[in-house]
Design a protein that fits this description.
The structure holds two protein chains of two kinds. Chain A is an alpha/beta fold. Chain A folds into two domains: 2-83 and 241-262, ATPase, nucleotide binding domain (Nucleotidyltransferase, domain 5, 2-Layer Sandwich), CATH 3.30.420.40; 92-235, Nucleotidyltransferase, domain 5 (2-Layer Sandwich), CATH 3.30.420. Helices cover 43% and strands 19% of the residues of chain A. In chain A, the strands form two sheets. In chain A, strands 3-2-1-4-5 form a five-stranded mixed sheet. In chain B, helix 2 packs parallel to helix 10 (212-224), helix 8 (152-173) crosses helix 14 and helix 12 (273-282) runs parallel beside helix 18 (385-408). Classes of the chains: A alpha/beta, B alpha/beta.
Chain lengths: 263, 409
Amino acid sequence: MYLGIDIGSTSTKAALIDGKANLVAQKVVNIGTGTNGLELVLAELLHEAGLTMEDVVYTVATGYGRLLCDVADKQITEISCHAKGVSYLVSGTGTIIDIGGQDSKVIRLDPLGRVANFAMNEKCAAGTGRFLEVMGRVLGCKLDELSDLAGASTREIQISSVCTVFAESEVISQLSMGTRREDVAKGALVSIAKRVAGLCKRVGVEPKVVMTGGVALNKNMVEAMSRELKEDVQAAPYTQAVGAIGAALFAMEAAEKKENNNG
Amino acid sequence: MDDDKKLTSKDFLNQLVAKHYEGALQAKAEGKPVVWATSICPQELLETMDLATVYPENHAAAIGARKGALEFIENAEGKGYSSDNCSYARVNLGYADIQKAEAQDIPMPDLLFCCSNICNTVIKWYENLSKTLQIPLILFDMPFNHTYEVPEHSIRYMRGQIEYAIGQLEDFTKRKFDYDKFGEVMELSNATCEWWKKATDWAKVIPSPLNGFDMFNYMAMIVCMRGNADGHRLFKMWHDELEAKAKAGLGPWNSAEEQYRVMWDGIACWPHLSTTFKALKKYGINMVTSTYPDSWNVRYEKNDLSGMAKAYASNYANRNLDYDEDNVVRLVKDFSLDGIVYHSNRSCKLMDFRQYEIQRRVEAATGIPSVVFDGDQTDPRAFSEAQYETRIQALVEMMEENKEARRKG
């Protein structure tokens, strides 16, 4: 068994694959680096697979917390792991949009599924999951309710501030002027989509466009992204666990390479 | 010259840095005038006039590297300078007020000497110093070159300003300008620049004998000592050491092998110099070149004032996008680069604004991978170590895939 672990800023993900690259199990817990998220996710994952750590031959860690992950044999960036994971799950992917808790990135793949170029958000929360969390708080709804709320929008309002802090006060002022919560929710999604579309244009969009990360669970977000890019955009299967699945695939390759070198 | 056998260029560099600052402080103490000047200005005029000169950009970098920048930055911001302004300017404007730095003191100026061939910010920065300190400013206005080659009218404009500045310096010092000495300084400056370029060119060898971060250190002296004998001796000495290392097949470090060769685009992240260096070295990445070797390759014939004007008008930062693209593509080939690290430096809008387009064009022309990271030359607040590390590691993964593909043919 090969284990991939993705320790993000707001969630921890793990995936197991067997020697034939079949996905055996994947799990997500919604607490990130610096917590006991890793222990929790591994316990759940191994329980579901009916396995123990003894069955794991090789482990690759990725994500923000990868360098502090003791159980890993190797660390690989989330850029390469997302490329690997998406290429495995959705063949023919040209562009990956990953919106995570504290960063967003756009990865352009070459025809062989390798990273050709990538761009990440600046040192700022604009265009990240954190922006949506802040918006959710102001609108008094959970992150997963934001999508449905936006779905009921009848009028699109513009949130022009790119700064999360300023956008928050802009939204508060909209709400106090009587703007409907649904329309503000939609405005927040469109604001992120516009921001991320800028990153997409920087690296060049190649179809298929696949979204990963927790934000891709939000259907209206995926639609907003698609409208902004004027391209079909689909959410990856196991959208939150894509990085962990990619890491598990790298673990398998690294173990095979090690075996070949030893043999 | 027996001393040369024992003295390394690094020792000599450290001695010269100390001598440079002590000399300027001493001049001030003796009642001699002190000049503050921008980094790529026609220093030949100041050297000819024997004027003690310090360079605020160098000084700000030194303060930044010794982690002392924030005090001055906060002072400048408190006076109303926006955090969007260049942090060299904010450190220096803060220093002009506080006038005391644990990292390094410099004497206050009696004359300002500013050349806008490096950016436009320096104009307002120096004008503000001039107004606040009530001292004269000699300004070389060097408009941006929108054409590929530097136009003839720009060269004539620059030459006219150099001639005018000579008169201004005569008025300021109440001494005649010595044209014979000027010729000698021109000759020496050119020879020093030639050794600087030849030294940094040794990084073309694989493995490179030069650790590119050392270049950042030596750069301080090509700014402020290229017109005198000490500077000339230093860069010749450095060159000879690198030549010997290259011929012995020695790489940049004793403790690790050079695995990847990259270019660093932009100014160093001085407050995080060690962090940025170590993250590269950890993966065997050597920064073998940047746009700096050419920035101080200021070359022209002795006594050729138009040639000198053209050399200063031709600075890389002042050239158009097509020129920049060709320049970086040439560096990729000449230095056998595996990748490029672009420092998106909050301070330097001039460099940042063209960075994405240069990245796009260079990638299309050469196929080598690159990453952009956010940072700042002296403001320690505009850098995230984890973000830097992720980008560098991603660059390694891309460079490794390319190497793997080449190995497989």
